Amino acid sequence: MTDAAPRLHALVEQLLGVPLPVRVRAWDGSQAGPPDAPTLVVRNRRALRRLLFKPGELGLARAWVAGDLGIEGDLYHALDLLSGLVWERGDDARGLAQALRDPQFRAAALGLLRMAGLPLPPAPPREEVRRTRHHHTRHTDRRAISHHYDVGNDFYEIVLGPSMVYSCAYWPAPGATLEQAQHDKLELVCRKLALKPDQRLLDVGCGWGSMAVHAAREHGVRVVGITLSQEQAAYARKRVADAGLTDRIEIRVQDYRDVTDGPYDAISSIGMAEHVGAEKYLEYASGLYDLLKPGGLLLNHQIARRPERDESAYELDGFIDAYVFPDGELAPLGTTVTQLERAGFEVRDVESLREHYALTLRRWVARLDDDWQRAVRLSGPGRARVWRLYMAACAVAFERNRIGVNQVLAVRAPESGDSGMPLRSRTWN
Q: Which residues catalyse the reaction (predicted)?
């Protein structure tokens, strides 16, 4: 058989009701579709089996991670073209998951499979995390964090560079270096928190210690950084020692729910709240409120999704949830602000950094591509493919305004109502 690609291309277009914007090359060498478009490479029939038995995003993810599917050409362009079919289903197209469940498609695709005598679907790639629901207990949170962050510090050094900051940078211009942009982000957080020498800062989800080191070195504060990742903690402690800041920084492997040594003057939570979960978010916000002294400031840096018209119909992202951030949950910005206010905080400032995260992710992907073979040796080919796809897809999602990222500055205002904030609070600009 040397006509698999034309048959697949025509079938998908017929079922979706719109032209397929990418070229397809199948396992038999056949090709179909726009000649100048990025090419979706279907390397074997196993890719079809994955899609047939798990229609939609998760089936695509399994095929990608296993190496059954690939993309040749501009990865971002391909994801941008496909996003309308996979993520942004409109009135003029049924969407991939719905099309893959269509009896006509399944009958035709199964016909292709029968010619090869292929059996039932293969097992999911070993990189996939299996779970039943989002519990967000101390045990499940620790396991989820370990899955994502204990890939290996050497792997993260490839992706993140010397700054080892795994959150949105703050770009002075698109051509700036990643190191400068990450330095500027850490300084932005410190300035928003109005840090002063010898104040106590709690850094929730401290990662590899970048914020703690910057705040102690540049602003003279005393920092407690907490993480659930043993590998991160070991790396952060070494950085603290190398910087000569062991008298000012303590790194703990500790759940945020177990911190009891307040009050703190300020709290930074940068890229951590996405792991908290909707059911636990008020507990998280209330716990941080209780750890602050009156007049203390919280800087909550968090990715947000767009609200659904019917929030009860919201479903978690199949690929991200299964391969990247198990038990991670994104909430709309309005929900986050409401929960912070319910906990007692007064929200004083909200700043969107959406475009900044798109730039950051593109730099991370470039670094991964530049040292791809070493990354594969360190993490395995499946895990490296997971990180490449998730970072590139997220860059496109930020660019298309499917998701955003926001810094929310909030204060634990005293009972007197005097927040202590200056009349013109944006002194950090």
A: 394
Give the domain ranges of the chain: 4-116, 138-411
Residue 136 near residue 277, CB atoms below 8 Å: yes
Residues facing residue 347 across a β-bridge: 410
DSSP secondary structure letters along 293-329: EEEEEEEEEEEEEPPPSSGGG----HHIIIII-TT--
Contact 18/37 with Cβ under 8 angstroms? no
CA distance readout (Å), 165 to 181, 328, 361, 391? 10, 19, 12, 15
The residue annotated as part of the active site, out of 168, 190, 206, 394, is 394
Alpha-carbon dihedral sign for residues 144, 145, 150, 156? positive
Rounded CA-CA distance 63/48 in Å is: 8
d(CA 407, CA 161): 23
Two tokens at 365?
A: 């992907």
Best CA proximity match to 226, nearest among 247, 256, 248, 198? 256
Quote the pTM value. 0.89
Token pair belonging to 58: 């998760």
Q: Which of 41, 33, 24, 10 is nearest to 105 (CA)?
A: 10
3-state secondary structure of 25: strand
Does residue 411 contact residue 421 with C-beta atoms inside 8 Å? Answer: yes
Residue 212: closest CA among 196, 194, 226, 191: 226
Q: Are strands 249-253 and 403-411 parallel, antiparallel or unpaired?
A: unpaired
**How far from chain centre, in Å, is Cα 412?**
29
* Half-sphere exposure for 277 (CA within 13 Å, toward CB): 16
Mean model confidence pLDDT for the chain:
87
With beta carbons less than 8 A apart as the criterion, state whether 30 and 78 touch: no
User: Six-digit token pair at 158?
Assistant: 């490839």
Indicate the pLDDT class of residue 316, thresholds 50, 70 and 90. Answer: low
pLDDT per residue as tens digits for the range 288-305: 999 999 999 999 999 999
Beta strand residue intervals within 11-91, DSSP E? 23-25, 31-32, 39-42, 69-72
Summarised one tens digit per residue, pLDDT across range 331-343 is 999 999 999 999 9
What is the assigned CATH class of domain 138-411?
A: alpha beta
The residues with which 32 forms a beta bridge, in sequence order, are 24
Upstream peptide bond of 263 is cis (omega within 30 degrees of 0): yes
- The C-alpha atoms of residue 405 and residue 410 are separated, in whole angstroms, by 16
Q: Is 168 marked active-site?
A: no
